[in-house]
Each structure stands twice: as C-alpha cells, then as structure tokens.
C-alpha cells in the first residue's frame, strides 16, 4: 500500500492544515465547534448509508477530512493559553504597576552575562489565581545561585511584554516566545525575592534533581567543565552552559544537530538496549520484555534530560518504532512516523511551527525515502568503504531534505558537512556509548575516574575535529538570501526529482520539468519584486544612527559610525540586506539634510544646531541634542518627529510630551521600532 493511500496520511495532512489555518486565521471557538458537530453528523449519516448508496461513500471520506481539519484547529485553540480567562495576559494592572506575583520555577534556561534565566508558571497576582508561563530573569551576584526547579517564589514586580523585533527582517523573538505560550518576562534581584520552603515536587522537579545529581557526580570525578558541558548537550540535550564559541564551531561545521537531542541520540540508546537484551530470544514473551525495557529506558532518558521538546519528540517517535517492531509492523515505517507526529501535535500543536520539529521530521523522512535510492548508486565490497558510503548517503539524504529549511531559517550553509559527518561518526558513536554509561553511573554515584577521563578525552577529540573543519571559513557560506517562494519551489523540485528517479516515466518527467519552470517563476517574481522596491529605513540602533535608502537591490547607507563607513556590516544591517536580496552600493557620512521621494529629512544631532527656515517634512533627532523641542517645533514646523535609539530614554519622554501638546506625530524607534518611508 502506498503511503498516500494510507488513510492516516490524509487524516494527518488535514489535521496539520487545520492547525496552520487556525494559526493564521483567528476563528472563534464556538463557530469551530458548530462546524465540527456538523461534520460529525455528516460522518455518521454517511457511515450508515454508505452500504446502500455509493454517493455516501465519497461524503464519508470528505466528512472524515472535514472533522480532522477542525479537530486540528480546535486543538490549537485549546492550547493557546492567551485565550484562557485565567491567563495573566488579561491582568492589565500587572503590566502597569508593581504587583505581588507568585510563581513556580519550571525550567532552567541558558544564562546571559547579567542574569540567570528560568521559565516559570504564574500562580497568583495580588492574591487572585492566574495562570500562564513567563520568563524569569534573576540578576547575577557574587553568591551562588540557590534556586531549584519547583521553588515557589513571591516578588513585587511589573510584568514586561516581550519585545517585538525593532528592525526589519530580524528574528521575531516575540513570536518565538508566543508560540511557546510565553507572553511576558520579569526582571528581579535576589533581594526582591521571597522563597517559600514548600517545593512543588512534580516530574520537572525530579528531572532537575537527577540532572543536578549527574552534574555533581561528574564534578567529583574532576570532569573538565568545557567537555562536561558538551557531554551534557550531546547525551542529555542540556545546552544551557555550553560556550558560544563551541556552538559556532558546530554550526560552521554542519554538526549543530548533534548538540540537540534528536533521533540520532535516541537511536544510539535503542541500539545499546537491543545489544544488552540480545540474549533474550525473539519469542512473543521475549519481544514484549524488550519492548518494555526500551520504553522504560527511553522514558528515563527523557526525564533526566529535562523533558525538553526535542527530547520528547525523539522519544515518542522511537517509542512508536519500537511498538511497531514488536507488533511485526515494520513494513511501512512512514505510518509509524505519521502516528508519532499526529500524537505529538495532538498534545502540542504549536510544535508544528518550531524549526527543530520541522527539521527533525523532514530529515528523518528523507533518510527513509531518499537514502535507499542513494545507496543503490554504489555497492562497495570493502567493509570500511561500505561504512563510509552508508554514512555519506545518510548524511546527504538528511541534508538534501533539510537544505531548503536551513537556508530559509538560518541563511547559511556549511559546505563541508559531509566531511564533518564522516569524520565524527566513529568518535560520536564511542562518545554516545561511553556517555550513556557514564551518565547512568552518575545518577547513582560518582563515576570511576578512568571512565570519566575516557569520555572527557573523547569529547575533546570530537571538539578538535569540529573546530578544524569549522576553521576553514571559505567553505562556510553565510548571509544567503532565501525567501518563502524559494522554500516551496525548491521542495517541489526536490520531491519531483526523487519521484522521477525512483520510477521514471513520462508523466513524472513532465512534473519534474514543470517544477523547474515554477522555480524559475519564483526567481523571476522575486527579482522583479526586489528591483521595484524603493524605501528609506531609519533603524533602531543603540549609540549610533543608521539610515538606508533602497533602490532595487542597491542600498545607500548613511551613518555616523566611522567603522561602518570602512566596513558597512553589522547584524542589524545584514538582516535587512539578506531579507531584501540587497547589497551596499555606498556608505556615506550622515548629513544634516537628506531628501527622499520628494520629502525633506532634517537631522539635529548632538550639536543641537538647526536653521529656522528649514521647514522639513521629517525631523530626525539623534545623539540626545540639548534643544528646547517646543521652540524647535514652533520655528521649523515639521510634520513628524522621529527619535532613534541613540537618544537617552529620559529626553525622549520629554520630546513625546512636547509633540502631544502640538499634536505632531512622534515615532521613537526604541518604542515602536524602525521607521519606513516609501
């Protein structure tokens, strides 16, 4: 039976479409429930009359997909915490004034230079019950952090909504957190916190206790901190303490996926468990014992790794594979993959919009679908050559599947990914096996020194291999412009090529040729769209002023940053260039007067000098000029005032009040984000 003919494939497809539709189109819950009820009614009517009349057979299928669609949508609504009346997002007072908030710490996040960071669950606001997840930022000091997961904390503070991206084409952190049902953050000092002695002892508490016990026992074995943090990332998926330099090396070498627990890691665990249980015969009873052992081992692994989304995805996926193997249903692994995806999305529909979830499933799908085709291209007789070829085909299959998504999300491509994968797989296999043994031992006691040193030196060797590949910067392609049109059309092309190569015939060749034409159309449309673009952007950049004028792909930069005049590159500008397929034509020292599209822009900088008769359309204030804005407005009569992020917050508040008196629009980039003029 073909995958597309499998009923669950269609049901899952419509379920996913329902999630996507309801994510972008907000439909009230009661309308969705009415539609679902009508679908269920049609389903039962079609079911009872399908034996008598063939017309009802097709309506039975349609009603099934209709129900799947609305179940997907309703599942998304049910998991959208902001729609719940008890959610803190509806308590406006907490966002305006200091209020007494109690919350429970849920998960430790990666710290920054200034704060230790956690996710937490709101319990009460001013004594009233509320719910919802927030991020808690606790300022670092000389004292060691004593906070543990499950701690009940009380503090008087203001909830601060997540900041949206303040510059064009930047990563939307606000949306990223909203998809995880986090809508606010709090910033606290340890002196402002009251900790309740009662600890909420749930699965996250015990998971953190196990995790902390492992770290303490590893430290007793004098495990080098740098290698220990990599070990925790490789084995348990805990990346909180790993250094940014090591993360960059893994990114540039194309090995980032091994730092996040994925199917590769869980697969190693399954292989190890199967190897240990090999003496048990494959009878019905023996197979059942193996299944239970694997499920318990995977569940235990999920708990000690902190129950992170990536771990849960992989554990659920491989649990279904183990169940399918036990039931002797290994004939079509795609069905098992679909079941695991459907189950995960039923409990966490927002995972669908997570880049990690998408990359995990697309990479695994292409390994299952494409790798057998690549493997047939060559059948080496030498075992070493066969191993290298198998590793290459798996790596290429996964990379081909993930390639468009990686370009779309990260705009970079590690050219030596295949070298990395061939070089590290033997070391990684040893690290995973040794790491699982050491981590399991560390749950109970400090591991033997020799065993810890073997793992430490293995990780050191792995890091050195990764660093050597990453240091060849000429093979790391950065800042690749890639939009949504390219994403869709590239996948159409890749899928049509594979379908044609698997079983060539004329209709499939036509489909392949059409996909090439569609890809060319996306290139032509994108080129036309970019060549007709004309806009001026005033950026939100601290301690500097950045202005660009875009004419097609050519971008003219105006700035007061002298280093950018020589080398016009920074993260803010790069995001805009990559997102708009642009290039810097020239970089100029900013002037007091600029003209764009018939509009006059006058700039008052720290000198505070201006001419009375300038009469600009736009007045741009930079570098906190010491001026009386009321007098300036009366003398030059601008239509709109813009203040960029190079000004102090205090002076911007005064300017805002002055503009309100004169009824003149005031745009502060620190508050509203970049300003665009077309």
Describe what you observe in this structure.
Strand 12 (546-551) and strand 13 form a beta hairpin. The chain contains 22 helices and 20 strands. The strands form 4 sheets. Strands 1, 2, 3, 4, 5, 6, 7 and 8 form an 8-stranded mixed beta sheet that branches. It is globular, with a radius of gyration of 29 Å.
Keywords:
alpha+beta, 678 residues, globular, eight-stranded mixed sheet, five-stranded mixed sheet
> Considering DSSP H and I runs of 4 or more, what fraction of the residues is helical?
40-55%
**Span between termini:** 55 Å
Uncertain stretches of 5 or more adjacent residues:
none
Shape: globular
Nearest-integer average pLDDT = 86
Contiguous helical run count = 22
> How would a textbook summarize the main sheet?
8 strands, mixed
- β-strand percent reads 15-25%
Structural class, by secondary structure, is alpha+beta
Using only CA atoms, what is the Rg? 29 Å
Oligomer: single chain
- How many beta-strand segments? 20
């Amino acid at each position: 039976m073909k995958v597309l003919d499998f009923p669950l494939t269609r049901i899952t497809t419509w379920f996913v479409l329902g999630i996507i539709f309801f994510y972008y189109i907000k439909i009230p819950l009661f309308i969705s429930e009415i539609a679902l009820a009508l679908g269920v009614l049609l389903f039962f009517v079609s079911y009872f009359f399908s034996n008598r009349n063939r017309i009802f057979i097709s309506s039975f299928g349609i009603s099934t997909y209709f129900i799947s669609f609305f179940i997907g949508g309703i599942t998304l609504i049910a998991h959208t915490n902001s729609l719940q009346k008890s959610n803190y997002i509806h308590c406006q007072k907490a966002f305006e004034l200091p209020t007494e908030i109690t919350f429970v710490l849920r998960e430790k996040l990666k710290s920054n230079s200034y704060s230790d960071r956690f996710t937490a669950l709101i319990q009460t606001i001013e004594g009233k019950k509320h719910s919802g997840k927030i991020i808690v930022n606790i300022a670092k000091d000389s004292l060691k952090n004593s906070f543990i997961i499950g701690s009940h904390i009380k503090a008087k503070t203001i909830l601060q909504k997540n900041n949206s991206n303040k510059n064009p084409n930047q990563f939307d952190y606000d949306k990223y957190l909203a998809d995880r049902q986090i809508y606010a953050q709090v910033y606290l000092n340890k002196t402002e916190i009251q900790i309740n002695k009662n600890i909420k002892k749930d699965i996250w508490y015990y998971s953190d206790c196990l995790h902390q016990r492992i770290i303490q026992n590893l430290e007793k074995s004098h495990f080098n901190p740098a290698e220990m943090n990599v070990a925790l990332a490789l084995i348990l998926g805990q990346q909180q303490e790993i250094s940014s330099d090591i993360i960059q090396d893994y990114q540039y070498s194309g090995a980032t996926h091994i730092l996040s627990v994925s199917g590769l890691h869980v697969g190693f665990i399954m292989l190890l468990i199967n190897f240990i249980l090999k003496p048990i015969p494959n009878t019905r009873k023996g197979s059942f014992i193996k299944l239970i052992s694997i499920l318990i081992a995977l569940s235990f692994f999920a708990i000690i790794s902190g129950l992170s989304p990536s771990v849960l995805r992989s554990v659920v996926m491989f649990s279904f594979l183990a169940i399918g193997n036990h039931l002797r249903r290994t004939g079509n692994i795609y069905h098992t993959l679909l079941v695991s995806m459907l189950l995960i999305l039923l409990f966490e529909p927002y995972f669908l919009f997570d880049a990690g979830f998408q990359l995990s499933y697309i990479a695994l799908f292409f390994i299952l679908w494409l790798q057998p085709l690549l493997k047939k291209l060559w059948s080496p007789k030498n075992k070493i050559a066969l191993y290298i070829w198998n590793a290459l085909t798996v790596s290429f299959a996964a990379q081909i599947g993930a390639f468009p998504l990686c370009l779309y999300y990260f705009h970079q491509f590690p050219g030596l990914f295949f070298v990395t994968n061939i070089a590290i797989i033997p070391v990684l296999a040893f690290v995973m096996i040794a790491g699982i043994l050491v981590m399991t031992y560390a749950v109970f006691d400090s591991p033997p020194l020799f065993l810890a040193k073997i793992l430490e030196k293995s990780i050191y060797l792995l890091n050195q291999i990764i660093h050597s590949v990453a240091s060849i910067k000429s093979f790391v392609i950065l800042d690749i412009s890639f939009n949504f049109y390219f994403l869709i059309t590239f996948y159409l092309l890749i899928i049509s090529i594979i379908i044609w190569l698997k079983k060539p015939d004329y209709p499939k060749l036509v489909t392949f040729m059409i996909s090439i034409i569609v890809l060319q159309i996306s290139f032509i449309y994108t080129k036309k769209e970019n060549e007709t673009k004309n806009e001026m952007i005033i950026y939100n950049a601290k301690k500097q002023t950045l202005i660009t004028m875009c004419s097609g792909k050519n971008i003219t930069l105006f700035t007061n940053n002298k280093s950018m005049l020589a080398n016009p590159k920074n993260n803010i500008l790069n995001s805009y260039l990559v997102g708009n397929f642009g290039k810097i034509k020239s970089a100029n020292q900013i002037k007091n007067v600029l003209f764009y599209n018939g509009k006059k822009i006058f700039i008052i900088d720290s000198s505070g000098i201006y001419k009375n008769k300038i009469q600009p359309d736009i007045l741009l204030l930079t570098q906190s000029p010491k001026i009386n804005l009321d007098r300036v407005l009366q003398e030059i009569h601008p239509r709109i005032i813009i203040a960029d992020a190079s000004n102090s917050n205090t002076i911007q508040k005064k300017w805002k009040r002055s503009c309100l008196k004169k009824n003149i629009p005031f745009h502060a980039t620190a508050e509203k984000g970049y300003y665009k003029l077309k």
